[in-house]
Amino acid sequence: MISAEDLIALVRNYNPKTNADRIARAYEFGLKMHEGQFRHSGEPYFSHPVAVAAILTEQRLDDATIITALLHDTIEDTKANYGQVAELFGEEVAMLVDGVTKLTNLQLSSRETKQAENFRKLFMAMSKDLRVILVKLADRLHNMRTIKAMRPDKQVQKARETMDIYAPLAGRMGMQWMREELEDLAFRVLNPEGRQSIIRRFITLQRETGDVIHRITGDMRHELEKAGIEAEVFGRAKKPYSIWRKMQEKDQGFSRLSDIYGFRIITRSEEDCYRALGAIHQRWRAVPGRFKDYISQPKSNGYRSIHTTVSGRDGKRVEVQIRTRQMHDVAETGVAAHWSYRDGVRSENPFAVDPAKWIASLTEQFDNEEDHEDFLEAVKLEMYSDQVFCFTPKGDVVKLPRGATPIDFAYAIHTRIGHACVGAKVDGIRVPLWTRLKNGQSVDIITADGQTPQVTWLEIAVTGKARSSIRRALREVDRERFIKLGRELARAAFEHVGRKATDKALETAAKHLRLKNSEELLARLGSAELTAHDVIEAVYPELAKDEGEAVPMRRAVIGLEPGQSFERATCCQPLPGERIVGITYRGKGVVVHAIDCDRLGEFENQPERWVDLHWHSGRHQAAYSATLDMTIGNDAGVLGRICTLIGEKKANISNLEFVDRKPDFYRLLIDVELRDVEQLHSLMLTLEAENDVASVERYREKAETVATAG
C-alpha cells in the first residue's frame, strides 16, 4: 500500500502548492475508518482508496478530488457520516464523497432497474460535479485491475457493466487511455480465449516482421528532422480488445486487419501539425477515406488531433495521430483537463472544455424525451458514436453521429423538414434516403407537401432526435395499424411458446415494461420499438429462454395479409434477424428485401407497394440460403477443409460455383443454408480465421445487375 508521504509526493510532482497536511489528515482518517476491513484478496481495504487516489494523480487532479478518492467509501462502508466529513474536510469534499456514494448505490447492473434509468441517474450525478464521475471511473479501473480476487460470476457481472457503461463513458469524456484499459480488462474476463488468440498472433507477427514499432518510429523521426520539424514520436500496438472490435466491425480476420499499430506525433505548434502531416504523406501513401481533421473540427469534449492512416511499402497500414502538447493533455485527460494542475497552478489549457457546459450540451437535447428508453437511445448515440460533419446548401455545419443518413440530417435541421422529406441530394447527386453520410458532404433535403414519416424510416434513422420524432408522428398517424400488426406479432410469439396472448397477459406485460396499457404495448410492438421476445420475457421469463420448436417457413414473416404469400428477394437474400421490408407484386404476392438492399431504390416513389414486415422472433429452420463470395488458395485439400468447416458450423452447402481459376487461387460462390444472420456472421468469422482463405464476403447482386420484375 502506498504511504501518505508517497501519495503526497505524487501530488507535489505536478502541484508543489498542494495542501500536504490536509491530504495527510484525510489519509489518516480513511485508514482509521477502514481499520479491520479487508478486500477479497486479503489486503487491508484502505489499500483500494489509496490506489484510486494514485490513479487520479496521473491525471494531475486537484486536492479536493484526491481527498475524495481517499474517503470515497467512508460514508457507505464505515461509521463516518456526511456531517463528520464536512466538518473535517469541508463541504466541497463531503458533497463529492456523497455523490460517489450515491453513484455506487445506483445498482447499475441490476435486472430490476432498466439500463435507461441508470443512465439518466448517472447523468444527474454527473451534472452536479463531474469530479464524482472521475473518482468513480478511477475506482472502477482499480477494481478491474484487481478483479481476479472476486468470484467468477461477480467478475463477469462487473466486466459486462464496465464494457457497457464505464468504458464508453470514459471515452466520451475524452479519457481514451482509460477507455482502452477498461475495455481490455473487461475483455480479459468476458472472452479470455479471444484475447489470448490475438496476443498469440501478435507474437507470431513480431517474430516474422521484427520490431515494427521501433523501425517506423525511427523512420518518422528522420522525416520530421529532414523537414525541420521539432516533434516527439511515440508508437504502440493497439490493445487486444481494440483489435478484436475492429475484426468484428470490419468482418475481417487478424491477417487482413492492417492498422494494428498506432503512432503519435506531438509537435510544438498547430502549424507544425499540418507540416508534419505533409512530411508523413510525402513519405508514405495516405489511405483514402481515413483522414480526419479534429483540429479544425474539434469533438465536443475538446478533443483535437489530426488522424491519418498511411500504407508502407509492404502494404501494411499504420494509424498516425498528430497534435500539439496542449491538445495531447486534453486528449489524455479529456474533460478532466479543466481541473488539472501543472507546476502548482491550474492549467490554462485553451482546449480544455468547461465541464458544466459539456454536460449541458449533452443533456439539453434529452430533457424533452418522453421516456427512459428514448433518453437511453439518445445518450448512447452521443457516447458511443464518432461524428461526421456535413453542410447545408448555405454552408452551415450539421454534426451527426457516424452512420447517419439524410433522414437524420433533415430532422437535425427541423422536425418539420424531417416529416416532409421525400428525397435528398448529396454533393448535387440524388441519393436514396438510407445512404450513409460522410465527412464534408453537402446535403440538400427535398421536401413535399402532404408527405408524412414512413415506418421504414425507423430502420434508416440513427439519431435519437430523428427516431423519437418519427415514432411520435407514426403513433399519431398509424396507431391503429401498428396496434393491429402488434397484436399479430404478439399472437404468433405467444403461440410459439405454447401460450395465448390474452388481454390479461398483455396488460401484465405492459405493466412490467412500464407502459400505460396493452394498446400502447401493441403499438410499440407493431412499430418495432419493442420486440416480441421482450413481451414474452416480461410475462414468462422462463419460456423466453426456451425457444421451442423451429418456426416453419410459411409462418416466418409477420405482417402479411391473410392468404398472402411471400418469397425472399434473390438480390439481397434477407435472413432472419435482419431488418426487412416487403414489396408487393400483382399476382406474385410479396417479395421480402433487406432494408439496405440496392434494389429498393427502384420503388422509392411507389410507397403504396411497401409493406411493413418482421421476422418471427422464434428460432428458425436452417433453410434460408445465402451466398458467400470466397477466394481460397489453390492447394491440395483446401476446398475439402473449407467444406468441413462449413459443416461444423451446422450450415449445409446447397450449391458451389467456380467464378475464377488461377494457378495460385480460386474464386468461388458457395450457397449455404442457414438459420439466421447471426449464424452467417459466425460462419464468416470462422472462415476468415483460416490461413488458406484470402477473402470471404457475403455476395449480393448490385441494382444494375438485377432484371426488373413485376
Q: Globular, elongated, flat, extended or rod-shaped: what is the shape?
A: globular
Query: Distance N terminus to C terminus?
Result: 76 Å
Count of beta strands:
23
Measured by DSSP, the beta-strand proportion falls in 15-25%
| Portion of residues within helices | 40-55%
Q: Flag low-confidence runs.
A: 109-113, 365-370, 704-710
How many structural domains does the protein architecture include? 5
Major sheet size, sense and barrel closure: 6 strands, mixed
- Predict the CATH topology of the largest domain: Hypothetical protein af1432
Short overview:
It catalyses: GTP + ATP = guanosine 3'-diphosphate 5'-triphosphate + AMP. The chain contains 28 helices and 23 strands.
Can you offer a commentary on this structure?
GO terms for molecular function: GTP diphosphokinase activity; guanosine-3',5'-bis(diphosphate) 3'-diphosphatase activity; kinase activity. Pfam families: ACT_4, HD_4, RelA_AH_RIS, RelA_SpoT, TGS. This is GTP pyrophosphokinase rsh. The structure is a single chain. This protein is an alpha+beta fold. The protein folds into 5 domains: 187 residues, Hypothetical protein af1432, CATH 1.10.3210.10; 152 residues, Beta Polymerase, domain 2, CATH 3.30.460; 67 residues, no CATH class; 63 residues, no CATH class; 75 residues, ACT domain (Alpha-Beta Plaits, 2-Layer Sandwich), CATH 3.30.70.260. The protein has 28 helices and 23 strands. Strands 1, 2, 3, 4, 5 and 6 form a 6-stranded mixed sheet that branches. Strand 5 and strand 6 form a beta hairpin. Helix 1 runs antiparallel to helix 2, helix 3 crosses helix 9 and helix 8 packs across helix 18. The longest helix is centred in the last third of the chain and has 33 residues. It is globular. The C terminus is likely disordered.
